[in-house]
């Protein structure tokens, strides 16, 4: 090779190395945090420091709550998640999820409902109201990307997350936990939905709730079903590494479009405390 050609090739290689990181960042501007590992998503806290603030019960549309958010201002905005408790329960029953998910790079609001007896449809409306509050009125609204929102909930709150996802198809993800709803068909739902049920749930049995819900959602929506081995209806009320691990992976994959987390979802995980796992792998890019 002539000397001039060698110099040109060398310069091209240097240029490519200089451009590559920028190109990768442009490919997905929503990636937050370091490359994930099994240990990092199983940890009780992720890479982001977290603060919290209280939302008054006098707020419009839902019963108040607590916002957990990453304190970092160097990584841009974050996706956001609203979580509803179940029938007769308060936000304290699902409070453990707030800091755990926020420390992985999300703004999270755990809500109280207007009444502890509110049904799933009302809880769905309240989840959506909480997201609207987060993005338009809250003190942390500048930290949130309003185009990257998700919902979750336990029991009737889980049923409410299905309602919210069906009513607001622009949501990026829904995660019903031990969901209860008298409506069994969700054939018009298009939001990527991850349903987690308990094998021994006697309140919202998986055979009458979680599994029919999963089966009715079209595969084109992207969906997964995870059944916790031996778990009762109340498994979401206690800190659980497996539940958190795959919630984080689902939110990262679909709220942040972060394909680095695809490895934890596809192929189907086989953790010892998972009784069954169904999915639509491989997920569309």
From TrEMBL:
Residues 1-25 form the signal peptide. InterPro entries: AB_hydrolase_fold (IPR029058), FrsA_esterase (IPR050261), PET_hydrolase/cutinase-like (IPR041127). Residues 26-48 are annotated as: Disordered. It comes from the Bacteria. Residues 25-282 form the PET hydrolase/cutinase-like domain. GO terms for molecular function: carboxylic ester hydrolase activity. It holds the Pfam family PETase. Keywords: Hydrolase, Signal. Belongs to the AB hydrolase superfamily. This is Alpha-beta hydrolase superfamily lysophospholipase. It comes from Actinophytocola algeriensis.
